[in-house]
Amino acid sequence: MAAMNTPAPSARPDQSPISRDQLAWLEQQADHLQVAAEHELRAAGASGLTELALIRALQSPRWQLIEPVTFSDPTALYPVHFLLFHALYRLQSELAQASETLVISPLRLCILTTGSGSTRALPAEEDPLRSFYLDLYRYFLSGHDIRGMMERFLAGVTLAGSPEDVQEAAQVLGFDTLPGDFDTVKQRFRRRVMQAHPDRGGRTEDIQELNRAFSVLKRHFTRQ
Question: What is any Pfam family matched here (predicted)?
Answer without folding.
Answer: DNAJ_related
